[in-house]
TrEMBL record, chains A, B:
Organism listed in the record: Actibacterium lipolyticum
The reaction(s) this protein catalyses: tRNA(Pro) + L-proline + ATP = L-prolyl-tRNA(Pro) + AMP + diphosphate
Main location: cytoplasm
Protein name: Proline--tRNA ligase
Gene designation: proS
Family in the record: Belongs to the class-II aminoacyl-tRNA synthetase family. ProS type 2 subfamily.
Lineage, uppermost ranks: Bacteria, Pseudomonadati, Pseudomonadota, Alphaproteobacteria, Rhodobacterales
HAMAP family linked to this entry: Pro_tRNA_synth_type2 (MF_01570)
């Protein structure tokens, strides 16, 4: 993309309403614009990152054997009356009446709707196991929306639901989700720690939240420092292998790691003192096994191999897709702006032309742009007639991990400059080598 | 995908509520499930086609230089009061009150919101031309939703908005949209004819609707039969070339082609009688140039090169993404089911194992599955223990354009059968050649 043809409305001023770094930076970098309290438009740069995160979630869910579909944003109130949650949910549920006076709502989650779909079509244990998921806009009418996309009212979420014959099978589905979530977050450059959580209104005894450590997190967290040494890495996983998935669960959840909701001081004190940590965390996902809570209430049953009709065992599993943008920025920024991890960066590399209008500099930039694009990379070329300082400030603000700087002086020596946003380190190298190096960085991402 | 692990709830019975073929077939093929009047869940097969269509729209819009972003589903009523449309829109607008008593609405379209975004950031003619678009769920509270996704209440639409300094520039944007729409529809296997249309509540003198001819269309259309001979084909187009885009507009709109709303009998009678056609059509898109209607009402201005502040010239341009599934099926089906065009088919090819459990047949199917997948193709392998008749009926119903049939008898002669869904023609060939042929069919699609 050539910046002169893009829509990147960066702000010089820091918006007064933004209290935390991610909110400030998303506004300043022209990623979002508030259109109503807690409701945002995703400007082109923000939309691009949102799609990258969504794609990672899709890929990892499908790798785990989970099947994508899509439920609507608006739901009929009837299903929620059947589960008993219509009255329980309180004012956070946005209730709507249509022109015929029917009670509707903007879905805050989808246990009822997916259970209705399941019971409409599935009747035999032979059709199990089954895990369906979707990524869709949801609405929670927060009384005080704040922190930008971190606590918006209209938000984008992946929610998946497993249907299994037995508790054992459902716990394997639980473990598959845990593994696929670990992989997803790591691909986004995040360390998200699974912590034992509270069931809340969805219910369930087995539930873990995934938390990203950050000063601005809404939850206080308590953990054994060994949990931050764990990484999933690029190990091979067979999602059909029950023991293997269970092994990952044990590896990642056996040490103490809890939020303030489930924290037990006595247990925490059993962790050696030098490894006890207290910090703040941002919740970016949660997995639940809740057994037959919804299947019994809504009569979602299958016939088992003894010809008995039994309610299915279910769980639900969520990733906060839009919220993740905020979490990633909270975990990765500096005074100058955002520092995108390579896995989610909106553009792979920025090209800064120090002397737009200079034939040689323009030609070198065009050649770089074409070479990078030909390799399947997605560069952002700042081809505006601006001074270098302004161009650097914009690139630093929007946080592309790599920048190639092209100027007449370097070109005389046959070199351009490749700069790492995170370390600030630069090296001079030929344009060809710069392209090759960027391609190597992104190989396999 | 192996069918034994997929969720494809095909129905044997024809649902009574469905009046037209596309609605019946989408229900029977397990693509959608109604969750409330005019509101559908997209089951896995339907979701897959929806995404294919969405991707074509994204690719063609970006090829035309239009910039993707995303506006929210819910909007504040204030902006609609500013444009004067809040009261005009009538009962089709779903009005919502949030917990603080604020008036909101579920966006049926986005002229107001995009104009607000534009005026918040853009102040100079130097930032023009600019075309922003998004693909988002919308809601129109139809009094009698029907025909499945063709006339739903919650629907998925691409809407794009151009901002230009002059009428001339805005008409070039109009032409770019016309060209990109022609390309998009053709990639979906559709002939959509641009017809002069009526401005309706959006307003505007320059507007064309794109109509797909089908008996079940909601509009009566009148046209010169020469328009159905026109195809865009794979010609090269430079979207910056004003004359070239204007030439395409003239080529595709100079002959008589109108809906009942704009039909003029006297003009129609000037078409030679043997070329006059009357038929029915399904609207799958519309483009508008409406000048300064919204920019004046909402004060969206830029400073021009004479330092004068002038309202921008705008247009809006929509493609009915979810409705297109219905339109494609109306245009392409037979008694047995759907016939997907290759560009939007949910899976590229079906593999039918005639004797599941037979070692040789199973191994041959697995090998085919792996070879196709390795080439980047997406096969659906029916690996269920069902009789052949049921497997063929399912494949015909869900409409994959190509099917490879594998059975012990053929394998003895070293052959499998490749069948074209549309013509019903089959040929016997080696598994390797079958894979090669399928790969050739999809090369470049």
């Amino acid at each position: 993309m050539r910046l002169s043809r893009y829509f990147l409305p960066v702000l010089k001023e820091t918006p007064a309403e933004a209290q935390i770094a991610s909110h400030r930076l998303m506004l300043r970098a022209g990623m979002i614009k508030q259109s109503a309290a807690g409701i945002y438009s995703w400007l082109p740069l923000g939309f691009k990152v949102l799609k990258k995160i969504e794609n990672i979630v899709h890929e990892e869910q499908q790798r785990a054997g989970h099947i994508p579909m899509l439920m609507p944003t608006l739901q009929s109130a009837d299903l929620w009356r059947e589960s008993g949650r219509y009255d329980d949910y309180g004012e956070e549920m946005l209730r709507i009446t249509d022109r015929h006076g029917r009670d509707m709502l903007y879905g805050p989650t989808n246990e009822e709707l997916i259970t209705d779909i399941f019971r409409s079509y599935v009747g035999s244990y032979k059709d199990l196991p089954l895990t369906l998921y979707h990524i869709q806009w949801k609405f929670r009418d927060e009384i005080r929306p704040r922190f930008g996309v971190m606590r918006g009212r209209e938000f984008y979420m992946k929610d998946g639901y497993n249907f299994d014959l037995t508790k054992e099978d459902a716990l394997h589905a639980y473990n598959r989700h845990l593994v696929s979530y670990l992989r997803s977050y790591e691909r986004m450059g995040l360390q998200a720690i699974p912590m034992r959580a509270d069931g809340g209104p969805i219910g369930g005894d087995y539930t873990h939240e995934f938390l990203v450590l950050a000063e601005t997190g809404e939850s206080e967290v308590f953990y054994d420092s060994e949990v931050t040494d764990l990484t999933f890495g690029d190990r091979e996983i067979d999602y059909d292998n029950v023991e293997q998935c269970q092994g990952v669960l044990e590896e990642f959840t056996s040490r103490y790691a809890r939020t303030d909701e489930t924290h037990e001081e006595a247990l925490f004190n059993e962790v050696p003192e030098e490894r006890r940590r207290t910090a703040r965390g941002i919740e970016v996902g949660q997995i639940f096994y809740f057994g037959t809570k919804y299947s019994e209430a809504m009569n979602a049953t299958v016939v088992n191999d003894k010809q008995e009709r039994v309610p299915v065992h279910m769980g639900s599993h969520g990733i906060g897709v839009s919220r993740l943008l905020g979490a990633i920025i909270e975990a990765s920024h500096d005074d100058k702006g955002i520092i995108w991890p390579e896995g989610v960066t909106p553009f792979h590399v920025g090209i800064v032309n120090l002397k737009q209008g200079d034939d040689e500099a323009d030609a070198a930039c065009e050649a770089l742009y074409k070479s990078l694009t030909a390799l399947g990379l997605d560069p952002l070329y700042d081809d505006r007639k601006e001074r270098a300082g302004g161009k650097f400030a914009t690139m630093d603000l929007i946080g592309l991990p790599w920048r190639i700087t092209v100027g007449p002086r370097g070109l005389k020596n046959g070199v351009v400059e490749l700069t790492c946003r995170k370390t600030g380190e630069s090296e001079e190298l030929s344009p060809e080598l710069a392209v090759q190096k960027v391609a190597e960085i992104y190989a396999g991402i």
